């Protein structure tokens, strides 16, 4: 029986991905982050105590994607007063605690900003 080809598949060359684990320690607390650096972007994940991975984004960026003021207000009520959010999928999110956010900002200032500058150069 003759087989008819229905699909055409093409795969790009791809790009190199460099993967780092970063730990920020303060006192007895350790905060873990996973950094993915490609040729043109950096993605950072927060690693929870149960080893789950959360994407990090700012509240400001999330609110820009919500077109309606009523929905923005509802969203703010869900995440509280956090400036930074941890996302696990589309509907599962929480605000970063103050200590988590401080660890992330320390990582950003001391590692991520330099990585980002090397991409832009």
Description:
- This protein has 121 residues and is of the alpha+beta class.
- The chain has one domain (18-120).
- It has helices at 59-64, 69-79, 98-120, and strands spanning 18-26, 29-37, 42-47, 53-58, 84-88, 92-95.
- Strands 1-2-3-4-5-6 form a six-stranded antiparallel β-sheet.
- A hairpin with a 5-residue loop joins strand 3 and strand 4 (53-58).
- It is extended, with a radius of gyration of 19 Å.
- 11% of the residues are buried.
- The mean pLDDT is 89.
The percentage of residues in β strands lies in 25-35%
Question: What is the helix tally?
Answer: 3
**Which descriptor suits the 3D outline?**
extended
Largest sheet report: 6 strands, antiparallel
Number of strands: 6
| Rg, alpha carbons | 19 Å
Strand order of the largest sheet: 1-2-3-4-5-6
Number of domains: 1
Helix content: 25-40%
Order of helices and strands: EEEEHHEEH
**Low-pLDDT regions:** none
Distance between the termini: 56 Å
Oligomer: single chain
Could you report the average pLDDT, rounded to the nearest whole number?
89
Broad structural category: alpha+beta
Keywords:
121 residues, alpha+beta, six-stranded antiparallel beta sheet, 6 strands, extended
What is the structure about, briefly put?
With 121 residues, this protein is α+β, with helices and mostly antiparallel strands. It has helices at residues 59-64, 69-79, 98-120; strands spanning 18-26, 29-37, 42-47, 53-58, 84-88, 92-95. 33% of the residues lie in helices and 32% in strands.
């Amino acid at each position: 029986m003759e087989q008819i080809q229905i699909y055409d598949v093409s795969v790009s060359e791809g790009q190199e991905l460099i993967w780092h684990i970063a730990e920020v320690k303060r006192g007895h607390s350790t905060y873990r982050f996973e950094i993915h650096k490609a040729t043109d972007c950096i993605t950072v994940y927060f690693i929870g105590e149960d080893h789950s991975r959360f994407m990090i984004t700012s509240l400001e960026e999330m609110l820009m994607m919500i077109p309606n003021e009523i929905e923005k207000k509802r969203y703010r009520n869900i995440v509280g007063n956090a400036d930074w959010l941890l996302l696990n999928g589309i509907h599962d999110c929480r605000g970063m605690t103050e200590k988590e956010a401080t660890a992330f900002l320390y990582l950003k200032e001391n590692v991520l900003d330099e990585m980002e500058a090397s991409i832009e150069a």
